[in-house]
Design goal:
It is built from four helices and four strands. It is of the alpha+beta class. A four-stranded antiparallel β-sheet has the order 1-2-3-4. α2 packs antiparallel against α3 and α3 packs antiparallel against α4.
Length: 189
């Protein structure tokens, strides 16, 4: 696993912003009032979410935490393959968002993986989230858009070179091709 300092810089920035907004929300919104941003379509209101997205699986917090840990481990394992600025941003945002919400699971409320995630951004009556959620959703959306555009956010895995990727030697038109890896024989036309 190769470390990418730029990914960690983005991840730490996202996690710090997420933590700061959650601390603010606990102090400013603790009395239960809401702060409208765009009428009732977007407002700030403090909620402790025991479940996953859209508050599903609230009775299975430890399972949600296990899934979060597994996904985070996957991101950490592959973050060294982040390709270009987009890859760094995607991995950094996803890891930072995961770190922000995992912090809550382990240190907010009952903690120990059973804690509640602090949410404060209400999107109408549809759902409520936080900065970590925004980072995770934007990372996922960037991967989808990049995929549609034919761009990859990861560097291809390095492994044994395939015969098709070896440079050709000799003159294939004259019957001199690249020796086969399997037999060591030169193919003839």
């Amino acid at each position: 696993m190769r470390l990418r300092p730029a990914v960690w810089l983005v991840a730490l920035a996202v996690a710090a912003l997420d933590r700061a907004t959650k601390i603010w929300a606990e102090h400013a919104l603790h009395d239960g009032h809401s702060v409208p941003i765009i009428g009732s379509s977007l407002r700030l209101s403090l909620v402790y979410n025991e479940g996953a997205a859209l508050s599903i699986l609230g009775d299975y917090t430890i399972v949600v935490t296990g899934v979060m840990l597994t996904v985070t481990a996957f991101l950490l394992w592959f973050h060294g393959r982040a390709r270009g600025i987009l890859g760094v941003a995607v991995f950094g945002a996803a890891i930072g968002g995961a770190m922000g919400n995992l912090y809550d699971r382990f240190f907010v409320g009952v903690g120990g993986g059973r804690g509640s995630v602090i949410d404060m951004i209400c999107y109408g009556d549809f759902f409520i989230g936080n900065v970590a959620d925004i980072a995770i959703v934007l990372a996922a959306a960037a991967v989808i858009v990049a995929s549609w555009a034919g761009r990859s956010v990861v560097t291809p895995r390095r492994g044994p070179e395939s015969p098709a990727s070896e440079p050709a030697t000799g003159n294939p038109a004259a019957g001199q091709g690249t020796p086969s890896r399997a037999t060591g024989e030169t193919p003839h036309r």
